[in-house]
Amino acid sequence: xxxxxxxxxxxxxxxxxxxxxxxxxxxxxxxxxxxxxxxxxxxxxxxxxxxxxxxxxxxxxxxxxxxxxxxxxxxxxxxxxxxxxxxxxxxxxxxxxxxxxxxxxxxxxxxxxxxxxxxxxxxxxxxxxxxxxxxxxxxxxxxxxxxxxxxxxxxxxxxxxxxxxxxxxxxxxxxxxxxxxxxxxxxxxxxxxxxxxxxxxxxxxxxxxxxxxxxxxxxxxxxxxxxxxxxxxxxxxxxxxxxxxxxxxxxxxxxxxxxxxxxxxxxxxxxxxxxxxxxxxxxxxxxxxxxxxxxxxxxxxxxxxxxxxxxxxxxxxxxxxxxxxxxxxxxxxxxxxxxxxx
Amino acid sequence: xxxxxxxxxxxxxxxxxxxxxxxxxxxxxxxxxxxxxxxxxxxxxxxxxxxxxxxxxxxxxxxxxxxxxxxxxxxxxxxxxxxxxxxxxxxxxxxxxxxxxxxxxxxxxxxxxxxxxxxxxxxxxxxxxxxxxxxxxxxxxxxxxxxxxxxxxxxxxxxxxxxxxxxxxxxxxxxxxxxxxxxxxxxxxxxxxxxxxxxxxxxxxxxxxxxxxxxxxxxxxxxxxxxxxxxxxxxxxxxxxxxxxxxxxxxxxxxxxxxxxxxxxxxxxxxxxxxxxxxxxxxxxxxxxxxxxxxxxxxxxxxxxxxxxxxxxxxxxxxxxxxxxxxxxxxxxxxxxxxxxx
Amino acid sequence: xxxxxxxxxxxxxxxxxxxxxxxxxxxxxxxxxxxxxxxxxxxxxxxxxxxxxxxxxxxxxxxxxxxxxxxxxxxxxxxxxxxxxxxxxxxxxxxxxxxxxxxxxxxxxxxxxxxxxxxxxxxxxxxxxxxxxxxxxxxxxxxxxxxxxxxxxxxxxxxxxxxxxxxxxxxxxxxxxxxxxxxxxxxxxxxxxxxxxxxxxxxxxxxxxxxxxxxxxxxxxxxxxxxxxxxxxxxxxxxxxxxxxxxxxxxxxxxxxxxxxxxxxxxxxxxxxxxxxxxxxxxxxxxxxxxxxxxxxxxxxxxxxxxxxxxxxxxxxxxxxxxxxxxxxxxxxxxxxxxxxx
Amino acid sequence: xxxxxxxxxxxxxxxxxxxxxxxxxxxxxxxxxxxxxxxxxxxxxxxxxxxxxxxxxxxxxxxxxxxxxxxxxxxxxxxxxxxxxxxxxxxxxxxxxxxxxxxxxxxxxxxxxxxxxxxxxxxxxxxxxxxxxxxxxxxxxxxxxxxxxxxxxxxxxxxxxxxxxxxxxxxxxxxxxxxxxxxxxxxxxxxxxxxxxxxxxxxxxxxxxxxxxxxxxxxxxxxxxxxxxxxxxxxxxxxxxxxxxxxxxxxxxxxxxxxxxxxxxxxxxxxxxxxxxxxxxxxxxxxxxxxxxxxxxxxxxxxxxxxxxxxxxxxxxxxxxxxxxxxxxxxxxxxxxxxxxx
Lengths: 342, 342, 342, 342
Description:
Four copies of one chain form a homotetramer.
Chain A: E1 2-5, H1 11-23, E2 27-32, E3 37-42, H2 51-54, E4 59-63, E5 83-84, E6 90-91, E7 95-101, H3 108-121, E8 125-127, H4 145-157, E9 161-165, H5 169-178, E10 181-184, H6 192-198, E11 204-208, H7 215-227, E12 233-237, H8 253-262, E13 267-269, H9 271-275, H10 278-290, E14 295-299, H11 317-333, E15 337-338
Parallel strand pairs in A: 7-8, 7-14, 7-15, 8-9, 9-10, 10-11, 11-12, 12-13, 13-14
Antiparallel strand pairs in A: 1-3, 1-4, 2-3, 5-6
């Protein structure tokens, strides 16, 4: 860490910071500058907590040099983590995995239809919401346990794995009984209590990036899950907030490549929530794969106009099929393989 | 609601949307435009769910006309809600309430010292963290139940009410036993499960605005609490994310005035997290009161340089005293009264 | 346009707005809502100016239904515009055009080397800065007219077209004598005086999106150029501002696809400024092409470590070559053709 | 400056950076860290250009320690700059100056009426637009030279100084003949050619902060004007872009206090453009003054409902009067004086 002093800091201020550094067992290295003095901190293992120094008199800012995360970091674990699911699908390490299905689980027929064409198109995982985090208390909140049962049956009937969201401890305890992958949504990315809870499970976990989370905060959210004992984590970029209302969010495609560089964990994209516009889903799915991501999670519905929620961003079955064909061709260009169930 | 059709939408597309509106029991009012047709929806009580129409062929966008919240809305409840605490302090309706204390509860002496000068300066509520939501799993997470006991004792000894954060169902169940006000932090603003949970308590609840939440989403988060039965909700603006790293966040002072216009709930400001810089806390506290807010929640520590967390944004005791004196003078200009314990 | 009235608006307020609409020659269509009345405006050709109604008593907001731009709009001009350059290169309408070169023109050798490998790799246009808009007055501001001469010679020697930035009327008058394409930078996107000025030239113009410009504002900036008489405009997405300091900007890949849908103009991407990180340039170039853009403008330098500016984001020659090979393969998947000089 | 190396940087990479630092005449100070080496740069006067090091192999990032601006900096010029206008009004150094008037100059009667009540209420400067930078080429662009004449006459008749915007070199050359203060609008904050141009005038200049400009970029824009020879610069915060459409912009009140700390220049606020909502103008004006700003520039119109542009954010005459009375009372609390013409 580098501690930058204010221009008007006194020699005594500098000396006090140096003593504080020494008390922590580190070594201070003052660097006098044109208008300010900076003090390097040497001898630490891993990140130094900046809040211990920010409060001292004369300190202007504390600039971290080491990354604050460890277990998720590629510096500590250079080889790609490959998450393998019970049906043999793999995510990461050269394998591209496509997950598809409706926003919300509605009924048995819908899920069976969806599972059938998702599997036929080349998808490996069935998605669908049983517990829905909704901005308004008056919106449909999901069919809960019944939805989990319907979804598991549909996935099994077509050889797909199953992913669905948990919104609290109680729903997580239900979801883990049925799903192969537990999703933590963007709104819960910093629900640290929930992250620790799913960190104790023996199931893969998707950690979606929060709408205004930096890449560092996103990796630290994943770190909570690994730190609790679960290293089968998949990062998912799903769009960030911007000033432009044209698209619902801005899908941060570069974040896919950046996160893959900083971390060994597989990184997937959600072009449905990332744009909120059906016509943009396939172009963004192609872009995400071209940028090097390890998977896609996409909303598709047998009959979008009848969907209970978010029908406007769901692909029609034929669009889903076209999307998988196109991303497979782009994956080929990059030497990557579409991962299908055994 | 207004449904705007694409320029290339056909007459049949328009007719289909009109039929869908009628099926919901509303009345469609087509408005042909220069290049597009728009369709007004008439006859609804409250907000119409846009997702039911967005998926239909030819629909470009759905523009809500009514606000999606009800219970928090000033349109439905024109008179200011005043939240009164057990020690007689009032928030809202012309009363300005100052809450102060350290970021984290550290030990008995710290809390007693803090309570003493907060009360002497004109504060009415003692704040302090027992459960801390921290970005990194390796940062100090709070002293938990023991901190609650210490804090309650310190508050009682000095006639203060007590506010502290709950981060999940379990901590909320503990907090409610000790605190007069339960705080839901910015990172949990869309933890809807937690909002519903504290909505069942008979204690006041602060709902902090998420770092990238719109004012509408913030009001809808409060709506979750009221909808669950608890109408003693205080809104708290604590800074939003921006592109500028100079301040930790941008304290959205206008949001205080906007929220007070849209809602009858009291609205307070947190200038400590809103800026992250000690020197900015008092100017922003003054600004918030000048904009018409109903209260302040401010970090202050007997010895900021020794604070376990966030010492760099904690006011020194004398600064806290100066701040209260200045905001009281500004409140006088606006005809508002600093609310002190009985 | 739809005019939404406040909940507390009186019948007289509504009547006054209706009369104002009629005075403009349009027809008002009141739509009574659950809590508010909305008034549709019918009979207008093109966009209605909202500021004429926003000031009236009782008006809450004015929601545009028609887009405010015309000449750039695909609704008015459905077929793709193809910009053809003197060397035969084409941008748009199925042709992908790659532009490459250094951030700043430094000397003759640098430009000839750059032109040689850009052309050999499949590039069609040489880029380079003669007039540099720099955040600090103390940074290198470009070599001006001399740079234009060097660059033209290098481009001609290798069959490339030439693009460079103009920063004001005077530099535009110089640039137009040498360049085939005049670039308006992100910082000048709303320098309307400059847009009108280059709108009088008979040369192609790149309009870069401002760092915080909405897609609508970007299209309106292009509209200024077309309105002044120049319809050979190329839109360029170069990254928007976000809260995350990890990348310099967020390259808004979806904006490429959205802009191509709203406008007939060709749309290109600048992955160099869009990320500010050399390692991210090629993944983002691939993503932009996969999303369907019509071209790329990329910084590359014969020896990036010696560059006078922005060397950290310049591709090495071999990286530029690899990038062109990869984007060509992805263009093939989409049925698009890399456009090379005659 | 601190140069942070990548975790995988070799000893030779570190040595190469040290040699590059020495070649610039500075001294390198390597600081080995837990996972990375950082290299301090010592011996520089003022800021070091980071782009010279970012391109070197093994370099991860370059972190500036000194601020990149000089002339505007309080570190170099600790005493407040006070800008005095020909009518005796002062801005800065304990004087609060209120500027008011319509968005656009419309006709003689409007300007005389406005000048009369602005002066009577306690304003010192008349504002009004003769050259309007408009997002759409089809919006009203201002009455130009004729407007300047009308405005000057109205200001003189009531003892007010005059401020108006210049949008390019040509309009600046006209404006300087009439106005006492030349305004550079937010959209032109990084029109460096225009900044240099007005830097050669002997008139005060307002530099408005760009909608997505960091405070550092804003100060560097002012630095362009001072560097060209004009040190009578006034900084103006007018709202930044955010994700929330509720207010047109977010008025960054903290930026007022931050800029006053970093710079000796006076800092004023524009609550009209900063919110875009008439009802928010007065609360935000109060907040800006409470935060310690040196002035306000506010839109007000004799009859807002008839305004040619932006009538929805213009204060009614009586509201303007109330606003001045309230901000004067708040200025009193802070020991500041409302500056009125001689």
